[in-house]
Amino acid sequence: MQDRDILRKLAGAVAEAAALPCQKETAQLYRDVNGLKLVRPPVLLDELPWNQLEASGELDLACQDPLAREAEQWLRRTLYRWRHCRGDLLLLPYYPLHRCIHIGDMGVQVVEDTLEADKGNNIISHHYSDQLSDFASLAKLHVPSVRVDDALTQRQAEQLGAAFGDLLPVRLVGLDYAGNHTPLDDLSRWRGVEPILTDLIDNPELLHAFMQRYLDIKLELLAKLESMGLVDACGATIHCTPGLAPELPEEQRGGGYTRKDIWGRCTAQIFAVVSPAMHDEFEIEYAKQYLEGFGLSYYGCCEPLHNKIHILRKLPKLRKVSITPWADVRVAAENIGGDYVLSRKPNPAAVAVDQVDEEALRAEILETLQVCRENNTPCEFILKDISSVSHRPQNLDTWERIVMETVRNF
Description:
- About 40% of the residues are buried.
- This protein has helices at about 5-20, 20-35, 65-85, 150-165, 185-190, 195-200, 205-225, 275-290, 310, 330-335, 360-375, 395-410, and strands at about 45, 95-100, 100-105, 110-115, 125-130, 145-150, 170-175, 180, 235-240, 240, 265, 295-300, 320-325, 340-345, 380-385.
- The protein has a single domain, classed as TIM Barrel (Alpha-Beta Barrel), CATH 3.20.20.210.
- The chain is α/β, with parallel strands linked by helices.
């Protein structure tokens, strides 16, 4: 079978699913929860361990051309999620072709050793070398270069459009992650975690100097991207969670958005172990400057934030807070009330087993549903960071079935 035939079959299947009436209902559910309405919580599964899901052959690539293979992978993975672990997945009626935009580095490269335990899995262990150990080293940091290749973008759009554009339109999109501000994620890769945590006490001036320099660079870069018309919305989701909201425009315009049209997102994962006061001083004070002017903002990832909601209230346009498996969900709901969406992240270890413990999973979900009902807190369930399903793809199907039954029947 030729590349074109393969892509047309897959694109036709995605287009058919994207045209179903349920997509409008799902889009409204996204808007409602982000509009702080007390609706049935959306459920999504993302960041799947694709190397452990290939046994059925559904994900095997057959195209030969490199660009065709990229499109094929996106189409196959989209269909896999739709058929096996759909939850409240929203399919948009187009293929998102990202414009050819290259953003350079900030002047520092990662130097690391890695250890891989599961071949083909993108979740591996890292040991990072410290590249920014003193004030002099901060001089390395600079605003990244930005290069756009519109000619290549056009060629790619024409190639894919000719292959399947009559079935599933090809839509150009710009940078859909421009609102992300994660200085401590980057610093962890440039230094390692221990030196950062040590500097909180031993050399706080250095950490403050880095945070200010990083903020200045990111704000200058964001302004440059806006002026070049490269900023785009996040599409249907913001970091694996529902992204549609009443306050934000939904039309993808292939770039041309500014920060007022999109989500801003910040996180400080390595600060899971620090006090609220320290988290506030070394991260929130900088995050609130970055988030100024964004349409809405979302805070958190894997760090427990149940006892830090009071400092998050300083963030402009905050709408959603990540509540991880390591957070106290009752305390989180009591502190959040009806002010923000509680973005609950159930424990992905539930699917990294030989057989899913259905009773324990129901109990985990019911606990969140109950405390959110008691506190009038809008919530959503997002299974992500799934490093393993113990090579049992059916675990995702089971998780999705149990959680959807639970939220529908509550």
